[in-house]
Amino acid sequence: MQKLFDEDFDALELAEGALVLNQAIDPETQADWARAEMQRLLKEAELALVNEHHEQQRFEAFLRLFYQEWGFQGDKDAYFDSANAFVDKVLERRKGIPVSLGSLLLYFGKQLGFPVEGVTFPTQFVVMVRWPEHPVQYVNPFNGEYVSEHTLRAWLVGQKGPFAKLKPNYLKVADHPTVIGRWLALIKSALLREERYALALRCSDLALSFAPDDPYEIRDRGFIYQQLDCHQIASSDYQYFIDQCPEDPAAELLKNQVRAMSQTQVTLH
User: Fold this and answer.
1) SS3 label, residue 94
2) Last residue within a domain, chosen from 110, 143, 171
3) Pairing verdict, β 116-120 and 95-96
4) Is residue 103, in this structure, part of any structural domain at all?
5) Is there a single domain that holds both residue 72 and residue 158?
């Protein structure tokens, strides 16, 4: 299993780091094709914007190019499809979710010289645009539309309840390792939903290379091993979680799972 370290992602653009992650999870990821396609689209953007000299108007033209001419869009029909979190698939299908579309928006935007940064807002990934001597703007990568702080607050209320407040740290620029860590968790959830347990196990192993003693990740790995009929390893992972988090409501349920798997092993022998 390939190990990933924070410094790998700090040195890369977010989309490039995501490709490294994607390939570590699924070796069949078309990483070389994706990089070539990103370069092709970048050259196309440079040619399309060559006559735009006002930077803000140039950025507006870039957004039209990305969402209208290239046809990138949020996948409204199958939001949780794992394909939406693999950069090569997003480039191929022109569909994605905020973080994957946002990573491409940032890749092209930074290469074109725009003042864009990524923000891991609690509800979804957002692209921040900071023009000198102008108020900060936020773009929803899902559809390319600007969102006001009022809208961001409404998103927050929808997730956290009516007393949620828009805290300054919610709008801080996110470092790449943090985004990649959340991206990894998102891919694992999608793969589990699709019952693609072998790839989900790769996600869990990668996550544990960052935090080897995380009881919740070890619990999740136990679930994956259970689905793969590796009951002895699953029992060991569940027991670790039970020992580390005895007060967690899931601990009692997992005790029953461990007992059931132990009885199955005895019956089989």
Assistant:
1) coil
2) 171
3) unpaired
4) yes
5) yes
